[in-house]
Amino acid sequence: MTDFPPLPPDLRETSVRVWVRYFGPGAIVACVTIGSGETIFASRNGAIFGYALMWCFVLGAFMKGLQVYSGSRFITLTGRHPLSSWLELPGRGAFVWFIAIMTIFWMPFFLGGGLPRMLGDFTNWAIGFPDPGDPERYLFFGRLWGTVFTVVAVLFTLMQTYGFLERIQTAMVGLLVFCMLLAAVFSNPAWVEVIQGIVFPGVPVYEPWVLQQYPAFKNRDPWLETLVCIAVIGGGTGDYIGYLGMLREKAWGMMGRTSDEKGVTPSDSPENLALGRAWLRAPLIDVVVSFFTIMTFTVCFAVLGAAVLNPAQSIPSGFNLLTEQASYLVRPDQSPLLQALLGWVYKTGIFFAFFGTIYGAYELYTRTTRECVVAVLPRLQNVPMRKFRLITIAWNAGAGLCLLWFTTKDPVKLVTPAALVIAGLTCGLWCFAMLWSDRRHVPSGLQMKWPLRAGLFVSGVFLTLGPTLGLIRFFRDL
After folding, report:
1. What is the distance between the alpha carbons of residues 104 and 108, in angstroms, rounded to a whole number?
2. Lowest-confidence segment of 42-51, 213-222, 255-264 by average pLDDT
3. CATH superfamily of domain region 9-472
């Protein structure tokens, strides 16, 4: 039995200063996950369905937030990563092997044919070269730019420190959310319909113009479009496993008492249990701020898609996944000077949103790889982080560049199965596994209360069944 370390005095305070101080690893998760999910899929959803499916983004962020908090409270209370506790589930570690393999296998789909390709196509458009009327040339230069961004992100990852990354990502998240809030407000959306779309769940139905102007949607089930959108919001197990690994840098709660993968058992004295509950404020602040930021950013892009792109009957797709959204800021009735200025603001913001995602993902995925490998092969727990970093870079950059150069599929189609698996299905299974770990390894006085358990169970059902149906629909549509 072990006592929790003394609580930092400022953690007992209730102020914005404290919240900012304890918002750290969550900033990296927020910045890494606001790439394709929020910028592209939320815009597409708003453009296709208008305001009807605003509930998806609030629900998705809330469920993912519950999922991540269940893991962060567990590692804070026990000093143990949930993956290592799941080794004790029936099946001799089969569940952990499944989560680890699925997570590591699908990560390059985001860091190869997905994000770098999207940012490469966007760069072609931003600099005005080459002409999109020449698809082969446009695709080549998109891949070339994607390769350059991958190499730069890898070099930064090899040179940076964790503290530097955290500061950069925190500043980037704050700037991006501020800009998108302004853009959403000045787009003059139908606020009543926004609120109705959040409060009253609508059903995804394609409007006639969608099928007439975009034939590709004839073979894409509207529920699949919606499920992918919910799944990619806020990231997936590739991000969350690494996020919990990053929490070790903070040494909150029992993480400050042990580095043993098996963790420790807190003593059950009333004073120690009260101290443990007080320590939970740290991960709660980090997760709440992170996912509130993600939800705000996502809703802003969905509102902009509904207010600007839907009336114009324009859907981000193909080479134009990020170009159509320029109309969020640049309007025909503006002066040429204002159009040029706002166009530069949009291009700069989107570039840093996507490059920030790629840049932060390599360090985050390093922690993910380390936690997955050590969970199934505990004898490797003393391997230096730099070696896991090299392995992560070799796998994600290597496989990712192969996907970038040797696949011609639309990036949305390429990341769809990856999103449904590691941003959906495995997240649902995580929720159920955390309910088991909490009962098995956390003292009764510190276990989750029934509202959190109920929310986690419902999230598990939704995040498991929804993506499973989405995968069935995806392969049926193929």
Report:
1. 8
2. 255-264
3. Amino acid/polyamine transporter I (1.20.1740.10)
